[in-house]
Write a structure and sequence with these properties.
- The protein is an all-alpha fold.
- Helix content is about 90%, strand content about 0%.
- Helix 2 runs antiparallel to helix 3.
- It has one domain.
């Protein structure tokens, strides 16, 4: 499969899933959920690539395409501004939870995949 096609296909799926979660849960909770889940899954994906369990093409489809479109820094940024305008402590909490939780989940996903490799 062409690399650009793999990214485009994954991106279409990821963006659709992202929209569905936002409609289902709302914001900012939906954004936190997709960013946390996406971080965990990207950690798994990158560890699988590093351990040669999946191909570069599959990583482009899943990591760059699907998870790249599923997660969202732009929505996180706008929601932080909106929360800041409503209540600054909520905005600070949202930023702290996201910036701590997401890297920890990416690390957990990576380590979990290494254990199974």
């Amino acid at each position: 499969m062409n690399s650009y096609l793999a990214v485009a296909l994954g991106g279409a799926i990821g963006a659709t899933l992202r929209f569905a979660v936002s409609e289902w849960i709302g914001t900012p909770q939906g954004t936190l959920l997709v960013n946390a889940l996406g971080s965990l899954l990207l950690g798994i994906c990158m560890a699988a690539l590093a351990n040669e369990m999946i191909s570069k093409e599959m990583t482009l489809l899943l990591g760059t395409g699907l998870l790249g479109a599923f997660t969202t820094m732009s929505a996180f940024s706008v929601e932080t501004i909106e929360l800041w305008n409503e209540e600054q402590t909520k905005a600070i909490g949202y930023v702290l939870v996201t910036m701590i939780l997401c890297p920890l989940l990416a690390y957990a996903g990576w380590k979990a995949m290494e254990v199974t490799a």
